Every structure is written in C-alpha cells, then in structure tokens.
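Quick one: examine the sequence and fold tokens given here and explain what the tokens say about the fold. Here goes:
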Amino acid sequence: MNNRNHVAIGYDMATESVRRQAMENARDNGSPTASGRVVLVQEPVTRQQYGFLIYAPVYRNGAGVGSVEARRSALLGYVYSPFRVDDFINPIYDAKFDVNFKIYDGAELSPKLC
C-alpha cells in the first residue's frame, strides 16, 4: 500500500478503451490477453512510462464456459498484472545480451506506433 499503488485502487479500467478491449477479449476468448500500450494509472507524472496489462478472466466455479455467451454470463472478474515496459525490457539490456528488437503496438508495423 504505497502511494503509487494507492492511486490505482478503485480505478475503473472499463472506462478506458484500450483496457476495456483487452478485458472483453479475455472474457470472450477465455484466456489471458495483453492490452495495447497504456500509461499506467500509478505512474508519477514526472516519470511516466508506457506499459501494458495482462488480464485473465475468472468465471463462476462450475459454470459452463463453452460459448462466448456462456463465458460472458459466468464472468466474475479478472486477475491482472501491469507491466512497465522499461522495467520489462531493461534487464535484457543490463545483461548485455547481443540482441536488437523493436516493440510495436497493434497489427500495423509502423515506427510511429513505438
């Protein structure tokens, strides 16, 4: 319960389209789903960085989840984890691996999306 995490408590993720889309996809597909690029709510304004979230749907115990409609009806909520991109990628650079890569958000491979 530090100050940064306290800011995120009570935040309605469904009010933001990128988060909502990932949550809906996870719910409908029944599997963990990564969001697109977001600025995490708990990031301080002076040190903001991009991140993404992975949502895993949680369904009512014993409920049938064999169809999209059944999964929607059985949904209780989500387990999720936020990932700060710098924290996610920097260990690769710190380990001095000889790798080069680019990270894109979306189906279109375009540097403007970085």
Q: What stands out?
A: The beta strands are 33-34, 38-39, 50-59, 75-84. The two ends are 32 Å apart (CA to CA). The helical segments are 3-8, 17-29, 68-74, 85-94.
